[in-house]
Automatic annotation (TrEMBL):
Protein name stated in the entry: Uncharacterized protein
Taxonomic source organism: Cohnella ginsengisoli
Keywords of the record: Membrane, Transmembrane, Transmembrane helix
Transmembrane segments: 49-67, 79-102
């Protein structure tokens, strides 16, 4: 970090704070959708703790879900409500990943497809059938969500 210019370091820190704060918006959607009886500041703190810990610890969202459960439970929310909140967040996460997969199918994240003439580089990924199959499976996930 000593080799990074102070202005770039400040920009990096600010970008990180904005990124985590934007993910916290989902918690406010939960608060409104499930009519949770917790304040805005508490909602923001719970989201901040759960999301940053989940980003550092990982485990495919299990760490964030466990922390979220603990923090909501300490605020007196019922287990069925907490379970519904976590299930709701899980669908949001896989839907976001599927949107990124659409970008992958289009060649947006692949350097080896940059030489292709087509703006939609599906053909580029056909050479790597395993990658294409995984991206296609994840990208079509939202089409298979039941209507309630």
């Amino acid at each position: 970090m000593r080799r990074i210019e102070p202005s770039r370091l400040l920009l990096l820190i600010a970008s990180s704070l904005v990124a985590v704060a934007s993910v916290n918006g989902y918690e406010f959607v939960l608060r409104r959708h499930f009519r949770l009886s917790i304040g805005r500041w508490t909602t923001f703190r719970i989201a901040w703790i759960a999301n940053t810990s989940n980003s550092v610890i990982g485990f495919a969202g299990v760490a964030g879900a466990a922390l979220r459960t603990y923090l909501y439970r300490s605020r007196g929310l019922s287990v069925p409500t907490i379970t519904a909140c976590i299930a709701f967040l899980s669908t949001i996460t896989i839907t976001g990943i599927s949107l990124l997969a659409w970008g992958g199918l289009g060649g947006a994240f692949s350097d080896r497809c940059r030489d292709s003439d087509s703006s939609l580089d599906l053909v580029c990924h056909l050479g790597d059938r395993a990658l294409f199959a995984r991206l296609f499976a994840v990208s079509t996930h939202p089409f298979f969500i039941p209507n309630g």
